[in-house]
Amino acid sequence: MSRSLPAGKNVVIYAGGSIIDHYKNLLDSGFTTVILNSLHIHDDSSLWLNGTEVVDASGKAQPVATQLAEIITELRGGGITTVLVSIGGGGSFNPNSSGINGQHSVSDADFKAFAAAYWPANGMTDPLATTVPIVNNFNVFISTIGGDGIDLDPEPMFYTYGQLLSSTVALTEWALDAGMLATWAPYTAQQSWQAYALALGQDGLGQPLTPSWVNVQTWSQGSDLQGWATAIGVPIGSIIGGFYNYDPSYIQNTLADAVQGGAQITGAFYWNFDDIASDAARIANVANAIIAGLAGTSVSVSPPTAEYQD
Question: Distance between CA atoms of 67 and 63, rounded to whole angstroms?
């Protein structure tokens, strides 16, 4: 299958477990892209969306995957054009009782499990094939739910970004080669992600590759959009800036200021649907603020605030 980038402005929201019960509040809200967070990889190659198994170790889709397929079909009838699955993410595990490691992030476990399952199972010789069981499991999940691709969110604490490079590149190559979208969600380690981009571009799949777009999580705290675009080697339009639980007017004015300053941005994302899932009006307000801001339209506020006002 071949997936295309969203047409027009990319109005993105990450959505955790609340989407199961509250997805209808996204219908005709103004959002165009939903990124399901977070998909986790267990040591037996089974895949879990948050705490629920979605593909078992043998590659069989579980009932919740079918439920998500029905939800996604309905979302596509209500303005959502793109659905991705985010792998990894934040959160942390405490040190184990023997003290072998310190506090470490969920991503450490996810990408370590992927590497352990991928490389011994033809990952070296047939890297993009679904004959590699863990790759097949990803394919089963995304095809079952009718998704458009993956979003990679390694945020290591115990391991290093360097140790996650090969897994990040392999997953990106697999998705792009399969005609899916592959986005990245870097946190703050810009030099590490620049190394990822260089490795992806030089890996020899016949043409230079870049991620479909990049979700920069810290823009609302002052991240340099153009700096990220330059580091990753993509146009600034492929950098999607993110906001966490901010007042819609703050989101709108931050985007509008960037557009009025000449930044040719094409989208923004909101983290996280779970925080506003039960409030359809608030969801629409956030989406409309992103849309207006991307159009360069400011709104007067007094006093200005970054905190959400009910």
Answer: 6
pTM higher than 0.85, yes or no?
yes
For tokens 């948050």, name the residue: 50
CA angle (281, 150, 116) in 5-degree steps: 135
Going through 194-258 in order, the beta strands assigned E by DSSP cover 214-216, 239-244
Residues 158/92, Cβ–Cβ less than 8 Å: no
Pair 71, 24: CB distance under 8 Å: no
Q: Which of 285, 283, 278, 295 is nearest to 20 (CA)?
A: 278
In Å, how far from its chain's centre is CA 286? 18
DSSP letter (8 states) at residue 5: P
How would you class 42 by CB atoms within 10 Å of its CB: exposed for 0-12, middle for 13-18, buried for 19 or more?
middle
Report the distance separating Cα 288 and Cα 13, nearest Å: 12
Residue with tokens 């699955």: 85
Domains of the chain: 10-294 (3.20.20.80)
pLDDT at position 7 is 66
Average pLDDT, stretch 219-224? 61
Cα–Cα distances (Å) from 66 to 25, 27, 133, 177, in that order, read 20, 19, 20, 25
Contact present, 241 and 223 (Cβ < 8 Å): yes
Q: What is the dihedral of CA 178, 184, 190, 192, to 10 degrees?
A: -50
pLDDT at 159: 78
190, 214, 301, 306 from 250: Cα distances, Å: 25, 22, 9, 6
Task: Give the tokens for residue 39.
Answer: 């998909």
Q: Which of residues 95 and 279 earns the better pLDDT score? A: 279
Query: Helix, strand or coil for residue 111?
Result: helix
Between 55 and 90, the higher pLDDT residue: 55
238 within 8 A of 213, measured Cβ to Cβ = yes
